[in-house]
Specification:
- The protein contains 10 helices and no strands.
- The chain is an all-alpha fold.
- The radius of gyration is 24 Å and the shape is flat.
């Protein structure tokens, strides 16, 4: 402290920094609490949730066949892991709201009007990608895999490996459906323009198929089912990004509040 018990400049800078850390801690705890509460509500139905998740495969498996557990703890740990992932997914709106509440005071008014809708849209698109994977992609690829099984081979999928497989596809399709948001953000920040993205369309299409190859299992069906929606969503992103073109840099930003 300086003379007259007045705080020094270093102390004045440290107080806001600590207050931000405390706020960040509180919002992280709220997010974790929301996930925990959802998990507690879902856990009694863990086996039913896994059965629902396995349904696209089970519908295509031979009659009287079943999945297997090759590890002792798999019958418990695999539904547990799936339920935890479901709790995190369902808690994502709460997590994003906490993120929004933490960063909103530092944004300009026009930025606040844009960021919240984008966060809502990104959440919706991520869930849309997961639903697309479950209801469109899974039936097609599992039907293909089962259909090409050689004669004399019995399909007996391990439950933990199946979960890893579907979670990978969920993440891949959820991430792919974020393409419009990424496109809008690049235009809004001035990184690129809709016209420049339009000129790069052939490279984007090739890149979509390369990502489809990297993010999905090595079969042409899932790769195509990921690449084509990415291309379509990219076109949608270009269209909507025209409404978010960065203003002239000479213009003055709006003031906070």
């Amino acid at each position: 402290m300086t003379e007259g018990n007045q705080p020094s400049s270093d102390e004045q800078l440290e107080q806001p920094f600590l207050s931000h850390l405390f706020e960040l801690r509180d919002r992280l705890l709220r997010s974790l609490l929301a996930i925990l509460l959802i998990f507690i509500c879902l856990f009694p139905f863990a086996n039913e949730i896994y059965t629902f998740m396995a349904d696209p495969l089970m519908k295509h498996m031979p009659e009287n066949s079943s999945m297997i557990a090759t590890e002792v703890a798999s019958p418990f740990l695999t539904p547990f892991k799936l339920t935890l992932m479901a709790a995190i997914a369902l808690g994502m709106p709460v997590i994003l709201f906490q993120v929004w509440s933490f960063v909103a005071p530092a944004l300009y008014r026009n930025e606040r009007r844009l960021v919240f809708p984008l966060m809502f849209a990104s959440t919706f698109l991520f869930f849309a990608g997961m639903l697309f994977a479950y209801y469109v992609v899974f039936p097609l690829i599992f039907g293909f895999f089962i259909g090409v099984t050689p004669e004399g081979v019995t399909v007996m999928t391990d439950i933990s490996r199946y979960l890893d497989f579907v979670l990978k596809l969920f993440f891949a399709f959820g991430l792919a459906f974020e393409v419009p948001i990424a496109t809008i953000l690049m235009v809004w920040t001035g990184f690129t323009t809709p016209e420049a993205l339009t000129e790069k369309r052939p490279y984007i299409i090739v890149g979509a198929f390369i990502l489809g190859m990297l993010l999905t299992p090595p079969d042409i069906i899932s790769q195509t089912l990921l690449a084509v929606p990415m291309w379509i969503l990219f076109e949608a992103g270009i269209f909507f990004s025209r409404f978010f073109v960065k203003p002239d840099p000479d213009s003055q930003p709006e003031e906070n509040n």
